[in-house]
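[job 4471] stage=fold_predict status=RUNNING
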Amino acid sequence: MKDFVKTVIRNFSKQYRQQTLPEDLHTQVTNLFHKEKKKYSWRRFRNRATQSALALALTFILAVNLFPGVGEAASVLPGFDKLVQLVTLQTLTAKKEASEIAIDVPKIETATPTKVATALNKKYLKEAQAEFQQVKKQFFDGSRVSVTGDFEKVVDDSRFLVVKRTLTQIQGSSATTTQYDTIDKKLNIVVSLPLIFKNEDYLSVISEEIKQQMNEQMKADTNQIYWSEAADQPTDVQPFKQIKPNQTFYINAKHQLIITFAQGEIAPYYMGTPEFVIPTKIIKQQLASPNYLSN
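[job 4471] inference complete, writing structure tokens
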């Protein structure tokens, strides 16, 4: 079994050194894993210990792709500049009687152009234009609506850049949506939850931590209300059970994982957009690299 694992790692390493670093690291590594696995007879390795060894080998290769210093190619990976400017590309505006729209479109500017910055800038403009056109249609059906969109740079250090976009719509009542993009400057990638965790175990681990924080907050302050699984919760709401693989999140200045929820998703609207700080020690064993979130 040890020889098998060594062979898998050796073959992966050989293929890795012979190719340029892919843009979609997670997909590339997974494809290589399945390709290599087909070369061996799975019937000889059905026991649980061997399957764990395969998972360990995959984690090792994923770490080579993700973290500087593990693989030689990582040391030459082009990344973001240490200082990044976040400017307004343009403001989409329209006004008719009592209705108006003003959406600021962000643009990431770096001294050296990167594919990630270019892709994000295109996404920001496309999504802003789509929202602008959608709201503008309401001007002609008699609705009175006010929409404002802005952005801010939440984190900008030597490792991460976090861009927050906020859209507020007032139409009788007020509703706010927030979106985050976390960019790993060293690896020049947009971070996602499935990318930085070994497997889907993080979903239940993080969810249980959030449930505990919900209960603690409600006990400490009666004005804090979440849709929990408690017996005294309203029957017409869906209680929070588990986060989604594509759950909104960002990494803060302390390099802690912050899980966020949309307004009204897990709590009454007056609670805004709830956020939960996940202690790194809680998820360290689930991370593809235990030290990924260290300062």
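[job 4471] summary: The helical segments are 2-17, 25-37, 48-66, 115-137, 193-196, 201-220, 280-283.
[job 4471] exit 0
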